[in-house]
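Possible race condition, two jobs.
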Amino acid sequence: MKRVGVLALQGDVGEHVMMLESLGSEVVKVRTIEQFNSVDGLVLPGGESTTIAHLLETSGLKDVLGAKLKEGLPVFGTCAGLILLSTTILDGRSDQWSYAALSLSVRRNGYGRQIASFESELDVKGVGRVTGVFIRAPRIESYDDEVEVLATLDHGDATGEHPVFVRQNQVWGASFHPELTGDARLHQLFLNSL
């Protein structure tokens, strides 16, 4: 059985743990280097991207995760996790960093602030229709050819259609929160890749 880690520094940790355990996975809440080294894949949860980045630095896990990404560790980032995995953060703070594991540019809160949160039905390649929960969600503004787009969203504004679920090699990213719906198919898709 594969062991899946959920980065447990801040954010939707419990919801991801419950979703992965419902699929029969052995789940590790990752807070230390030792825990990090014991997993076959990792979920970077939603939360606040600058806070998670700060906690990665202060916990000593920033460079460990960077090395693991280069070694090919499968990682699934949702919302803030997607921001941390992106190449460019268009409206980040001057000291905000990311791992550049997904060749794309994101805009933090690109679909609006907390009050503008919404749900939308998405057609996910290879899965079918799923509900996407968007809470202060990052919007993918551009991406390179290496990025496989698995779902898009037309939010009905002048910006048109944007990717909301993507994959590049072993790294996955979602603008939304699949852990909040009770539908485990996207987590299963990630587990199938381990």
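Job #2 (started ~2 s after job #1):
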Amino acid sequence: MIVYIVLIPLLSSLLTPILGLINRKTGFFVTLINAILTFTIIIYSTRKVYIYGPERYFFGGFEPPYGIEYVLDGLNSVIILIIAFIYLLSVLYSKKSLEKEIEQKRISLFYCIMNLYFTGILGIAITGDIFNLYVFIEIASLSAYTLIAMGLKRESLMASYNYLIIGTIGATFVLIGIGYIFMATGSLNMADLKLRLPSLYHSKMVRTGFTFLTLGLMLKLALFPLHIWLPNAYTYSPSTISALLAGTGTKVSAYALIRILYSVFTIDFDVNIIPFSKIFIFLSLIAIVMGSLLALAQKNLKKMLAYSSIGQIGYITLGISLANESALQGSIIHIFNHSLMKTALFFIAGGFFYKQGIENIQDLKGIARKMPLTMSLFIIAGLSLVGVPFTAGFISKWYIVIGAVESKYYIVIPVILLSSILSLVYIWRVLEISYFGESNGNEHKEELPVPLFFPAMISSVLCIFFGIYTELPVELSKRAIEILWGY
């Protein structure tokens, strides 16, 4: 069953342009069917994993380490569940949003590439083969470059080009790292590598491979200071893609990093043999603060949200690098929660552009009186981003703080408090202008059309739901920890 999780989006990407020759509108419906069907299969497969344990598929019947293996377990089931959900919301949002943001003759091509991107990120999460991981990273990356470039602005092409250059460097590092590890072990299967590597941890070849691999994933993850591709990519891509990349792209890269660090290598290697943990804690704390400060300095709403994502990525990598159960659980929960709240915020920012042509924060004067329901969704997602109690963002930050205390990294607590205050300041700036600013035109109430409002509403409301009813993300993250710690 799990092979269909990748196969259905791949077939949809092939089918979309063919049917688009008959009718341009078929691209949306093929993509929507793909999103619904894949999400349904993922829910069914995830339920089986939690009842019966990990599910595996061997291509061509060749068992690992000789063949390519797909694995669905307690860790990647969390990731593909949120990926598929965000993708479904993005597809629903795209039908109306794309009317103003790309050339209509490119609609079929857009959905073709969007399905291919979906194939890539699902493949990254589900593969158990380290070289296959690289292949899917390239599929997702090449698709993302194309989707960003489809924006109508000239800046879209430059953003895509910069992302292409940085992404290619990152992919090259990943491939070099895989090459070194293969030369040292003779294997590409992740489970097999975990058995073979411990006796080779003092090998310079293994250490070099690890360094290249983690550096490449850091570039893909946009961890500060390797973040330079992200702000423009999020800002100048079509709103559907801004939301999709923010909700899935960096999150699946974070998953890949977790999988390499804890399922291919071990905690002993990460903490004691290579000083990975200390270096990443330092970089993560800088990312948390600098992301918030840079967000505070922005005039463009989408760019503010983009820099905010850099800070939130810092939270995820901080939980990973603290290397204890509580912190890593917080990191996994934050991947889940940040996908929801940042997707919601980009949906709303895209809605402002669709309805009012607004991109800059100063132009939002009085928008709350014109679009009160939409602004209420922005408040919910924004407070979750800050980490206010009873929102999803608070839960993940709480677990990371607990993990920091357990590891005796008390410096983490004031850094998180400072970042939360800075987040409140830039979110409040938007709210102040929206509610108290004097608008130039009439203030006739006119909300977003349903295809735009519904995805934003669902993702925003879930930020409150999972902040109060925390059982699902907490339980899913516990199962993921069990896989990583070998319980």
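The mean pLDDT is 86.
Logs attached separately.
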